[in-house]
């Protein structure tokens, strides 16, 4: 088997007495779309944050394309892009300036051709010189995605990318995620919706109360649970 894009072994996170992640083991194959499905508070953001350096793990190991983050906490993260739930750009910059700054974070020059490419792909090019504060909610979400992708990461995390977005953006986003995966990018997305996992993912992991309960390929998951029953269970 090729080296996993992401490998977690015994990953745990405790906040004081509370355990948000319980010894999670998971290997994600290069080029796959993996959906992490779970209700509010399940530990999805904590897991992503541990890999992206936003959360300090309590124990366990994390490897990105075979490189252990304990050995090299910085280098492997150049391969990662994160689309967070929260807006993370400055309202006083333009869209293009935000992307130039983002490239700077990754030690890259302000590559205008790459900025144009990513803005066009996300239907945001017309707003290239607009201030980010003047964007609509949907456009802000497109910019969050552009920021995560502008440095061409090989492993992309999307944390509830379609929560609260309209149908058009959801459709655009799904199309774009599939395109990225077809080009070899590994995608990990979190969602509350079985429908979204079913639409996009090659494999689905179900997480609840910090425990990864199962990882299945999509067809097996649907056979096991039947249509929509997972969502009903979570929302009770
Ligand atoms: P959602 O779908 O609502 O975003 P999630 O699956 O991403 O939820 P997390 O945000 O990872 O869940 O939270 C997992 C658990 O850890 C929750 O019970 C949360 O309250 C707790 N938690 C997260 N961050 C902290 C923190 N800084 N201090 C204490 N507890 C925290």
TrEMBL record:
Chain ranges passing through the membrane: none
Superkingdom of the organism of origin: Bacteria
Keyword Nucleotide-binding listed: yes
Keywords, alphabetical: ATP-binding, Nucleotide-binding, Transport
Recorded GO MF terms: ATP binding; ATP hydrolysis activity
Keyword Transport found: yes
Residues in the signal sequence: none
Domain ABC transporter intervals: 6-234
Protein name: ABC transporter, ATP-binding protein
Organism: Myxococcus xanthus (strain DK1622)
Taxonomic placement: Bacteria, Pseudomonadati, Myxococcota, Myxococcia, Myxococcales
Portion of the parent chain present: 1 to 236 of 310
């Amino acid at each position: 088997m090729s080296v996993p894009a992401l490998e977690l072994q015994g990953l745990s996170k405790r906040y004081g007495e509370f355990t948000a992640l319980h010894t999670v083991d998971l290997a994600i194959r290069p080029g796959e779309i993996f959906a992490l499905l779970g209700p509010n508070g399940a530990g999805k953001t904590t897991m992503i944050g541990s890999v992206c350096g936003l959360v300090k793990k309590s124990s366990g190991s994390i490897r990105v394309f075979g490189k252990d983050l304990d050995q090299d906490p910085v280098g492997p993260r150049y391969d990662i892009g994160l689309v967070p739930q929260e807006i993370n750009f400055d309202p006083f910059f333009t869209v293009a300036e935000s992307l130039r700054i983002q490239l700077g974070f990754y030690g890259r020059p302000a590559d205008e051709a790459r900025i144009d490419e990513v803005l066009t792909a996300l239907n945001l090019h017309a707003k290239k010189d607009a201030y980010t504060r003047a964007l609509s909610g949907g456009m802000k979400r497109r910019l969050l995605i552009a920021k995560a992708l502008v440095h061409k990461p090989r492993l992309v995390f999307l944390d509830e990318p379609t929560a609260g977005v309209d149908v058009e953006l959801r459709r655009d986003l799904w199309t774009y995620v599939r395109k990225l995966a077809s080009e070899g990018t590994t995608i990990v997305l979190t969602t509350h919706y079985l429908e979204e996992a079913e639409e996009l993912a090659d494999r689905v992991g179900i997480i609840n109360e910090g425990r990864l309960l199962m990882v299945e390929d999509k067809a097996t998951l649907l056979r096991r649970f039947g249509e929509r029953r997972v969502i009903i269970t979570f929302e009770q």
